[in-house]
Design a protein that fits this description.
alpha/beta, 6-stranded parallel beta sheet, 4-stranded antiparallel beta sheet, elongated
Length: about 375
């Protein structure tokens, strides 16, 4: 009898690690996601733990090992093949140095998608402020209120450039870059082309618009044609003034350079998306003695235009030019609203620097959340 009692006692002693409550495991849906991840966390007070094995199962009967972690890890995020709304079962096992099982626990969780990502609240607030500012300025622009926009020197010289070309009897060259219509810089350049073409029609001058994309060809031709109609000179429009050269980057550059050398334009406009060809075009135009006005949002090309052209629209000035020329209430409202957003960002940066200097981290933590 004593041997039986001793046997049960030994079984109880050796089973204690498995039956103990020294491990705490939790599984829950990853917050602020699309329902594609489950987070596992654990705490334990076991000794001689060498590694942690995590197994996963859909039916709670057949478990497959998905990862083996060191003892320093206290959590794991499962993002592999997680289906939204499906319950997954996880077995977390603690292994000792001999490879023996010290303890294990099974837990279940279901991944769900959240409608709103609470970590994006600062971004939402910023969008609301900018959106309200845009609507506010559009409303007042439509009411006839004069909205101040800083003068853009490059655009103010369009009339001067066209007048000079008329006096010299030379054409005007407009280059919209090598971007297609899906590039916002090309669209901004074409908007300016419409205003320029009206001036050309009024002064009875000549314009050349070589393009490198078929869609840009159709759009630019319609814009120039409409400009001639607006000033009442549809008969003066020449469809051949807008023409296609090639899609090839440097083939297009060679073609434009040839036009500059042969036609000797009095003014050249480079407005759109430009890459390595910017300096080649601008230098050739400079050597021809033309007034050169350039504008692009490509940071690497702006210095070349600044060095070789008379006027350069830098970055967002290219996009602001359309509102500046058209005085359209919606474009003006958008421009002023975006300026408000930029002002808020600048104030936030300055306030953040001052707060960090004094050891106050509220603003940084709020934006980082």
């Amino acid at each position: 009898m004593k041997k039986i009692i001793l046997l049960f006692f030994l079984i109880f002693i050796f089973s204690l690690p498995l039956l103990s409550n020294e491990i705490s495991v939790s599984a829950f849906d990853e917050p602020n996601d699309d329902g594609s991840a489950i987070v596992l966390e654990w705490e334990y007070d076991l000794v001689d733990v060498q590694s942690i094995i995590i197994e996963k199962s859909k039916d709670n009967s057949t478990f497959i090992e998905i990862v083996r972690l060191p003892i320093t890890d206290t959590n794991f995020t499962d993002e592999e093949n997680i289906e939204t709304g499906t319950t997954y079962h996880y077995k977390i096992s603690f292994i000792d140095f001999d490879g023996a099982l010290l303890a294990s626990k099974t837990i279940s969780a279901k991944a769900t998608a959240q409608w709103f990502n609470t970590s994006k609240i600062p971004l939402l607030l910023m969008l609301l402020i900018v959106g309200i500012a845009i609507l506010y300025f559009i409303y007042h622009a439509r009411k006839g209120k004069k909205l101040y926009i800083r003068r853009i020197a490059g655009l103010d010289t369009i009339g001067e450039a066209v007048g000079r070309a008329t006096e010299l009897g030379k054409p005007i060259l407009f280059v919209p870059g090598i971007g297609d219509l899906d590039n916002i810089q090309t669209l901004a350049g074409l908007n300016i082309l419409g205003h320029l073409a009206q001036k050309v029609a009024q002064y009875d001058s000549t314009i050349h618009v070589p393009v490198s994309r078929s869609m840009v060809l159709s759009t630019a031709r319609e814009i120039v044609k409409e400009s001639y109609l607006k000033v009442g000179r549809p008969d003066a429009f020449n469809p051949d003034s807008v023409y296609y050269l090639t899609d090839d980057q440097f083939g297009y550059v060679a073609g434009v350079d040839g036009i500059i050398i042969r036609e000797k334009p009095a003014a050249t406009f480079y407005l759109g998306a430009f890459y390595a060809e910017s300096l080649i075009l601008a230098e050739t135009g400079h050597e021809s003695g033309a007034i050169q006005i350039a504008g692009t949002a490509m940071p690497a090309q702006i210095p070349f235009f600044v060095a070789a052209c008379d006027y350069t629209l830098i970055g967002e000035e290219l996009f602001a030019a359309s509102a500046y020329l058209s005085q359209d209430p919606q474009q003006l409202g958008c421009l002023k609203g975006q300026d408000v957003g930029k002002a808020i960002i600048m104030v936030t940066i300055v306030a953040g620097i001052i707060l960090e200097i004094f050891g106050i981290h509220f603003l940084k933590d709020f934006l980082a959340s």
